Amino acid sequence: MTAIEEMQVTTKKETQILEVAERLFATKGFEGASVREIARDADVSVSMISYYFGSKEKLMEAIVLKRLGLVKLRLEHLLEDFRLSSLQKMYAVVDSNVEDIIERQYFQKIMIREQCGKSSTTTARLIEDNRKDIGELMRKLISEGQRKGEFRGDVDITLLMMTLIGTTNYIMAAEKHYRVEHDMMHTGKQEFQKFVTLHVSNYIKDIFRHVLCD
Hints:
This protein has helices spanning about 5-10, 10-30, 35-40, 45-55, 55-80, 85-105, 105-115, 120-145, 155-175, 175-180, 190-214. By secondary structure, it is mainly α. The protein has one domain (about 5-214): Orthogonal Bundle (Tetracycline Repressor, domain 2).
């Protein structure tokens, strides 16, 4: 079993709790979602949440660590994969991030809310610490490409990642407008997400190629 697979392994009850908590934290905010409500929607007892996570604060931390931890693990694996070119690695980063953002809108709402709110909260600090780790791994990926002569030397990594995350997040936030522009008002959610994932991934890959290689 790979490290990513091991990280994804949780009991059925833990998974239920994490998914329900993620949805309620996203729609109601951390303060607005009670442990009792999470327990009810997850069909577990309050004591079971306490057993697995200890507190509501620790439950929020578990969500952040799980989601961002998987991002870090994927980057670490890419750094160790010598079969791929540096550009192929960056394309893999684009594919996985676009898919994550589109499929996990609840978590994206949590990320945005926590980062726009009080920066002194434990969750905000945890997100910032993980973002720094992710940024460092991205620098290593790009530095590898620069050493190989595949990438330009003057790459603004922060803007590159903001382009990836910001573009995808905005499209999902403005989903109705995007559907109208692409004549997809009556397209089902699954089909729409599949279209957007492919379309946005290809668009951002073109941007990455120009920024990194031209």
